[in-house]
Design a protein that fits this description.
- By secondary structure, the protein is α/β, with parallel strands linked by helices.
- The chain has two domains: about 120 residues, Rossmann fold (3-Layer(aba) Sandwich), CATH 3.40.50.1000; about 60 residues.
- Helix content is about 45%, strand content about 10%.
- It contains twelve helices and seven strands.
């Protein structure tokens, strides 16, 4: 029988938001770039890690990406990147509805490896958590144990009394090492079932399969 929990700590991308790269692909078409170029310049570069731990702001990181693309592919790229920047991912309405129901029973925090744009993105999508922990604000990202401990401390809940869900197995394992009841997220149906097993009186309307398969590029 699972231990009692006093709160939830959840990942963001892959649970409440999905990335389909539509904005990046549109920008690549406008600029005449090969598909996948923006993802490579944006995420496979040290500047993204620096933004993810708060050394750079989200805007400074985006400016860095823009400058490098412009230098390598020409000035026309600069004006073509608006769709990439405007794309904030697709919200998962099933999980957002479930989130609102869970918050009637437990406080919920989100712990995400991301830039300082997370709070504005949550507002953009109409997603409300009780506690918001972008790695850029913590100054450290998952899978460091310190990221999980900082989140638990700020929620005022011992790690053993927190359940954690993530779609990345490495991050689930890391949460377990600090004592959290950590589970791999595979979809809303199993997520709902696990929460019921923990004693949450959830309704059945959210317990169906999740959205179609997706490929996030902004973990």
């Amino acid at each position: 029988m699972p231990d009692r929990i006093d709160g939830l700590l959840l990942d963001m991308n892959g649970l409440f938001r999905h990335w389909h790269d539509t904005g990046a692909r549109h920008s690549e078409q406008l600029a005449g770039l090969p598909e996948g170029t923006i993802a490579r310049y944006a995420y496979d570069h040290p500047a993204y890690r620096l933004a993810r731990v708060g050394v750079l702001t989200d805007q400074q990181w985006a400016d860095n990406v823009t400058d490098r693309l412009t230098e390598d592919f020409g000035p026309q790229v600069r004006d073509a990147l608006a769709p990439w920047r405007a794309d904030r991912g697709e919200p998962d309405t099933t999980m957002i509805g479930l989130l609102a129901e869970i918050r009637r029973h437990l406080p919920i925090g989100v712990l995400s490896n991301c830039t300082d744009a997370l709070r504005s993105d949550l507002q953009h999508h109409g997603i409300t958590f009780d506690h918001v922990f972008p790695s850029a604000e913590l100054g450290i990202d998952k899978p460091s144990p310190h990221a999980y401990r900082h989140a638990a401390e700020r929620m005022g809940i011992p790690t053993h009394a927190l359940a954690y869900f993530d779609d990345e197995p490495t991050f689930v394992h890391a949460a377990r090492t600090v004592g959290m009841q950590a589970h791999l997220f595979t979809g809303p149906a199993e997520f709902t079932a696990r929460l019921r097993a923990l004693g949450l009186p959830l309704t059945s309307r959210h317990s169906h399969d999740g959205p179609p398969e997706r490929r996030p590029i902004n973990p």
